[in-house]
Amino acid sequence: MIKGGVAILDFGSQYSQLIARRVRELGVYCELLPGNCQWSDIEKLTPGAIILAGSPYSVYGADSPIPPVEVFSTELPVLGVCYGMQLLAHNTGGKVEGGFHREYGPALLNTKKSQLFSEIESGQQAWMSHGDRVTRVPSGYTIVASTDLLPIAAMENHSLKRYGVQFHPEVNHTVFGAKLLKQFLFDIAKLKPNWDMKYFSTQAIQFIKEELGDKGKVILGLSGGVDSSVVAALLHRAVPNRFVPIFVDNGLLRAGERQEVEKTFGEHFGMDLITVDGEDRFLNELAGVSDPEKKRKIIGRVFIELFEEAANSIPDVTHLAQGTLYPDVIESVSFKGPSATIKSHHNVGGLPERMNLKLLEPLRELFKDEVRELGRELGLSNLMVSRHPFPGPGLAVRILGPITREDRDLLQKVDKVFIDYLLEKNLYDEIWQAFSVLLPIRTVGVMGDERTYDRVVALRAVTSTDGMTADWYRMDPEHMAAVSSRIVNRVNGVSRIVYDISSKPPGTIEWE
Questions:
Q1: Domains of the chain by range and CATH?
Q2: Is 365 a residue of the active site?
Q3: In whole numbers, what is the pLDDT of the chain averaged over residues?
Q4: Could you give the 3-state DSSP secondary structure of residue 369?
Q5: Residue 37 annotated among the catalytic residues of the structure
Q6: Contact by Cβ (8 Å): 35, 65
Q7: Residue 82 bears catalytic tag
């Protein structure tokens, strides 16, 4: 949908996606492509520059990934980062060798006068993460940076617009990283910082109108989460009379969520919202089921059945919209290939083919933080666009063991107390995701003069940037004590609170 900007070639580095985020933060559109893609794939983007990212491989290895040969002869400006710099050297007459001590961590960079470092003072910290190194630069290149351990830390051929850095400018530990990327993007590649959500919104609306043409309608499974909410707002802006959101209430939502969705999208935006009350259907099908994968499969199946029933009542539907985001796209086309499935995910997979509909994914170029920004641009409240992620199966995977209405009601109350406390104390936005888990155990307690034998609840709060990895949130003990006391005092049936201090990996964010 979007053209221009920067093509970033991914060779399997843990930092590749971070390069893309940094480029977009500077207002330049970019896309990640597998490092061994075809040149035609790059040309489709009509990029103004190319960045070669890092890799765990060695460029001289038999199985090392290499870009299309045109990368080394293109007139486009090229920046090689770590492995990318070694690719430039190895494939144009330079020399790359291993057998040195691996360099990982901060290093002071000594820079020379050059175009790439023209705005950067010498002696600043850069972040290294490499085993191989360039030991001879190709003809026409000059060495423009070094460290105490690394004679060739950066090189450039200004006439060919080729630049290589052995360090990682995309990580925060490289203190001048943003300046270097700015220099490459704006002064060398002459790109314009015109990527923002106002621009994207205009482009996306035009794309949606062209995709739908003169006939047909688009439907969306609206969950109330950030992604589907932003898709709904975008479609309503683009084709208000040809868009129908369908909200399936599975009875496993957060407290008051159905009412909030109906008020926001039905009343405030005036959308033609269809609400499907599926609580009884879901809970009856889930009765007695403990295995989390079985829960997910049941919920996915029943969702599709109810969604399809509602969709069949709408005439002239041609498209099904989904809130697919760019990290999902990156994962599916990664040089390393899709990762192993840790747990199945609840979505509308299979529905487009089953219902003979075309798939519409208007957010597929966006990272999560960009989706939130777009939501604000489209008029969604900050509270809605900043909501923590919520699993498709809802509370079904936060009630360990069989699901009953009583347990559902109890967990909804606990979770509301927890989230309300975080909002009240201005802690909510510091946390990527926070929620409560109802454990299938009871413990002895004392309330007043009476012995109790009630439920145990685990509180979970994590920090993250993309959900791929996460660390447990270091909540102040005073806040832990206060929220624990508030839950026990306000929710009957709970006598003990525990706090989850597991990170991802080795654990996952959700318990099931």
A1: 6-188 (3.40.50.880), 197-385 (3.40.50.620), 404-499 (3.30.300.10)
A2: no
A3: 90
A4: helix
A5: no
A6: yes
A7: yes
Q: CA quadruple 123, 125, 127, 128: dihedral positive or negative? A: positive
Is pLDDT above 50 for 57?
A: yes
- Active-site residue identified among 82, 365, 373, 512: 82
CA Rg value for the chain:
26
**44 Cβ contact partners less than 8 Å away, ≥ 6 residues apart:** none
pLDDT at 345 (0 to 100)? 39
Catalytic: which of 30, 31, 130, 170? 170
The answer on pLDDT for 199 being more than 70 is yes
Reported pTM: 0.81
pLDDT in tens, 133-174: 999 999 999 999 999 989 999 999 999 999 999 999 999 899
Name the DSSP class of 354: H
Task: Look at the block and give the residue holding tokens 């090229």.
Answer: 78
Percentage of the chain lying above the pLDDT 70 cut: 93
Predicted local distance difference test score (pLDDT) of residue 502: 95
Residue tagged 């041609």 (tokens): 318
The catalytically annotated residue of 90, 168, 319, 346 is 168
Q: Which residue has the tokens 């935006």?
A: 269
- Ramachandran assignment for 17, one of left (phi > 0), alpha (psi -120 to 50 degrees), beta (any other): alpha
Cα distances (Å, whole numbers) of residue 443 to 232, 408, 447, 471, 497 = 44, 19, 13, 28, 11
Spatial separation of the C-alpha atoms in residues 273 and 351, rounded to whole Å = 19
pLDDT-based confidence at 19, cuts 50/70/90?
very high
